Amino acid sequence: MAEKTLRITQVKSSIGRKYDQGRTLKALGLGKIGRSVEKVDNESVRGMIFKVKHLVEVEEL
């Protein structure tokens, strides 16, 4: 069975946010508004998404 994936899209800037939130976006492979990445759905990725949930949109594939 194939693993589930998530498409994560940055919709807000990290400017003016806490330093660790900007670093979390970089760790996810984001950094510019409108950029999207696909990640495997696991607990560590879900934790990073939770930390920056107000800056990203998540779609299950």
Q: Overview of this structure, please?
A:
The chain is an alpha+beta fold and 61 residues long. The chain contains 2 helices and 3 strands. The protein has helices at residues 19-28, 43-51, and strands spanning 5-10, 36-40, 56-60. Strands 2-1-3 form a 3-stranded antiparallel sheet, with no helix packed on it. The model has no long low-confidence stretch (mean pLDDT 94).
The number of helical elements comes to: 2
Number of strands: 3
- Stretches where pLDDT is under 50 for at least 5 consecutive residues are none
Structural class, by secondary structure, is alpha+beta
Q: What is the 3D form?
A: globular
The radius of gyration computed from the alpha-carbon positions, rounded to a whole number of angstroms, is 11 Å
Intertermini distance: 14 Å
Kindly state the percentage of residues in helix: 25-40%
Please state the average pLDDT score. Answer: 94
Report the order of strands and helices. Answer: EHEHE
Q: Going across the major beta sheet, what is the strand order? A: 2-1-3
Provide a short characterization of the protein structure:
With 61 residues, the protein is of the alpha+beta class. The protein has helices at residues 19-28, 43-51; strands spanning 5-10, 36-40, 56-60.
Keywords:
single chain, 61 residues, alpha+beta, 3-stranded antiparallel beta sheet, 2 helices, 26% strand, globular
Architecture blueprint of SSEs:
Blueprint: E1 5-10, H1 19-28, E2 36-40, H2 43-51, E3 56-60
Antiparallel strand pairs: 1-2, 1-3
